[in-house]
Design goal:
With about 120 residues, this protein is mostly beta strands. It has strands spanning about 5, 10-15, 20-25, 35-40, 45-50, 55-60, 70-75, 80-85, 90-100, 115, 120-124. It contains no helices and eleven strands.
């Protein structure tokens, strides 16, 4: 059974940093991809970044370029999202997702497994 467990969310002030972690169990994502998404109340789920096991990556939202960094530790089956210079508009529930059917993608519909999410709140 595939499980994705996110951690690292919290409340910070504008300009602060957080590092989210997503640990996958029961899932060998060799050749596949893991992604970070976020969803604020009343909005659609938005892709943030995605990464493949061999290190290919993409950022899905222009608003995070230069501020967020996706990385991974394959030995720990863990993907990270380092978030710097946080803004109030980054406030959302952040989800980790895993997919196996496509190449790296920012489309939520192309992911098969989802974590429960971790809340990020940025105050001004």
């Amino acid at each position: 059974q595939v499980q994705l467990v996110e951690s690292g969310g919290g409340s910070v002030q504008t300009g602060g940093s957080l590092r989210l972690s997503c640990t996958a169990s029961g899932y060998n994502y060799s050749g596949n991809y893991l992604g970070w998404f976020r969803q604020a109340p009343g909005t659609e789920r938005e892709g943030v970044a995605a990464i493949t096991r061999d290190g290919g990556f993409t950022y899905c939202a222009d608003s995070v370029l230069g501020r967020f960094t996706i990385s991974q530790d394959n030995a720990k089956n863990t993907v990270y999202l380092q978030m710097n210079s946080l803004k109030p508009e980054d406030t959302a529930m952040y989800y980790c997702a895993a997919g196996r059917k496509y190449s790296i993608t920012c489309r939520a519909s192309q992911y098969d497994y989802w974590g429960q999410g971790t809340q990020v709140t940025v105050s001004s």
